[in-house]
């Protein structure tokens, strides 16, 4: 016999969960607070939707920042190849670009949502927009403990339930307008707190807490950095493709030495270091390596911020860079410093490096001794930037933290204490680097949740 399954949230995880549940033969209802399904999907990848990454599955787990082992069953059960096949079969052709990132051939994120909605319509899934959910209804599995309880009445804390197995079972949902909808299973896929304009305002986390599920602290992740340094903002719009960064908690670094601790302390270890593309903005820094770096920077733990050291010439050693500068200066001894280093950098960056060096723009190349060249090279490979914070949830691609994975059975995505409640997507305390990895988590956990709901014989 078919079961009635309610999916809360029509984002990536919710739509895939609905697809998997419907494919098993369940009657599926998707409840979405927004005016349309897939609202956040439309803006991912700058409107192109980097829907997964074509890397080897083992490599995939190296890009998961928190709780990668929790995802083994989900990802191996519905990996990137299966994701590509699903969209290809449902009218959304895909292509692989640099960094193994997978996009729709059309470069339109709307085609990703359209493929999912097309599949759901074919399987008679009801997508109900403008339907915000207030609570998940549960029933106490202990008869003398009462029945028909709603999230938050405390009955799940009954001492009799202190044993293995669920304390409660799902009975349906209550909408914000008061309407009750009965269900045999509920899949919670409301996302986190990032991009609140798309409806990700933490509603699901509140519902989960009222049900007694533990959550971990949340924070913006895959988010640009705000910096104290005016020179970064002055370079707004400049993108650098081959640079490297090292980042240290501010209290553990000195002002000028990349990664060296203040006197009397051991050398600090970076919380993040990488090579890639960086973008200067009107507020500080962005770009792929910065977004990924934000996954590793805990501003709650280090409220003073972080020191980022930027290496503009990572392909050259300190000595090689000194020799390169010496050759440029010898070839143009009469040039002022900004013009003398112009072969090394874009014009605006050459001006910024000159200003940061403190040598002055009127200094001529001929005036630079080997020791001054060494000092200039050292700066180029260790430009300090003070990171004061992030751009917050409004510009964060994902949310760090969420429902603790200890509350969830990783083989099914079902809540351990609440029978019939399944949880998937960004609302879980699982996140990854930029590059299609987070959407893969959404597809995989959503698919596992939907396909794990048993069909009664």
Strand order of the largest sheet: 13-16-15-14-17-18
CATH topology of the largest domain: FAD/NAD(P)-binding domain
Query: What number of domains?
Result: 2
Number of helices: 13
Sum this structure up briefly.
With 457 residues, the protein is of the alpha+beta class. It has helices at 12-23, 57-62, 72-77, 80-89, 110-122, 203-210, 230-234, 288-293, 318-331, 337-340, 347-357, 370-381, 437-452, and strands spanning 4-8, 27-31, 52-53, 64-66, 94-97, 101-104, 126-128, 133-140, 168-175, 180-182, 185-188, 215-221, 225-227, 239-249, 272-280, 284-286, 306-311, 383-390, 398-403, 408-409, 414-415, 418-419, 421-423, 431-432.
Question: What does the secondary structure layout of this molecule look like, with pairings?
Answer:
Elements: E1 4-8, H1 12-23, E2 27-31, E3 52-53, H2 57-62, E4 64-66, H3 72-77, H4 80-89, E5 94-97, E6 101-104, H5 110-122, E7 126-128, E8 133-140, E9 168-175, E10 180-182, E11 185-188, H6 203-210, E12 215-221, E13 225-227, H7 230-234, E14 239-249, E15 272-280, E16 284-286, H8 288-293, E17 306-311, H9 318-331, H10 337-340, H11 347-357, H12 370-381, E18 383-390, E19 398-403, E20 408-409, E21 414-415, E22 418-419, E23 421-423, E24 431-432, H13 437-452
Parallel strand pairs: 1-2, 1-11, 2-7, 9-22, 11-23
Antiparallel strand pairs: 3-6, 4-24, 5-6, 8-9, 9-10, 12-19, 13-16, 13-18, 14-15, 14-17, 15-16, 17-18, 20-21
Helix pairs in contact: 1-5, 1-13, 9-12
């Amino acid at each position: 016999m078919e079961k009635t399954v309610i999916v809360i949230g029509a984002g990536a995880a919710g739509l895939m969960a609905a697809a998997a549940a419907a494919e098993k033969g369940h009657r599926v209802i998707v409840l979405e607070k927004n005016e349309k399904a897939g609202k956040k999907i439309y803006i991912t990848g700058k409107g192109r939707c980097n829907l997964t990454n074509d890397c080897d599955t083992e490599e995939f787990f190296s890009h998961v920042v928190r709780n990668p082992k929790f995802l083994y069953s989900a990802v191996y059960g519905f990996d990137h190849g299966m994701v590509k096949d699903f969209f290809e079969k449902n009218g959304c052709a895909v292509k692989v670009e640099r960094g193994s990132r997978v996009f729709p051939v059309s470069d339109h994120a709307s085609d990703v949502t359209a493929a999912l909605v097309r599949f759901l319509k074919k399987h008679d899934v009801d997508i109900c927009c403008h339907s915000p959910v207030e609570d998940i209804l549960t029933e106490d599995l202990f008869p003398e403990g009462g029945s028909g309880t709603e999230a938050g009445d405390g009955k799940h804390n009954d001492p009799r339930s202190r044993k293995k197995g669920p304390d409660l079972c799902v009975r349906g949902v209550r909408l914000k307008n008061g309407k009750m909808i009965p269900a045999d299973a509920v899949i919670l896929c409301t996302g986190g707190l990032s991009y609140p304009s798309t409806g990700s305002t933490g509603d699901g986390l509140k519902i989960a807490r009222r049900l007694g599920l533990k959550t971990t602290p949340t924070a913006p992740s895959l988010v640009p950095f705000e910096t104290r340094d005016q020179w970064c903002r002055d370079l707004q719009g400049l993108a650098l493709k081959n640079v490297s960064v090292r980042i240290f908690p501010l209290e553990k670094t000195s002002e000028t030495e990349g990664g060296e601790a203040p006197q009397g302390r051991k050398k600090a270890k970076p919380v993040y270091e990488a090579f890639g593309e960086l973008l200067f903005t009107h507020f500080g820094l962005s770009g792929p390596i910065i977004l990924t770096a934000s996954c590793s920077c805990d501003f709650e733990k280090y409220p003073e911020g972080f020191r980022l050291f930027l290496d503009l010439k990572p392909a050259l050693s300190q000595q090689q860079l000194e020799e390169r500068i010496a050759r440029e200066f010898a070839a143009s001894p009469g040039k002022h410093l900004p013009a003398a280093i112009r072969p090394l950098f874009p014009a605006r960056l050459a001006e910024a490096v000159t200003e940061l060096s403190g040598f002055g723009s009127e200094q001529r190349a001929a005036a630079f001794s080997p020791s001054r060249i060494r000092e200039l090279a050292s700066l180029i490979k260790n430009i300090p930037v003070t990171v004061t914070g992030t751009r917050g949830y409004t510009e964060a691609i994902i949310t760090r933290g969420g429902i603790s994975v200890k509350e969830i059975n990783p083989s099914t995505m079902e809540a351990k204490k609440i029978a019939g409640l399944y949880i998937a997507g960004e609302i879980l305390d699982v996140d990854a680097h930029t590059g299609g990895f987070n959407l893969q988590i959404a597809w995989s956990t959503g698919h596992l949740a939907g396909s794990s709901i048993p069909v009664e014989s």
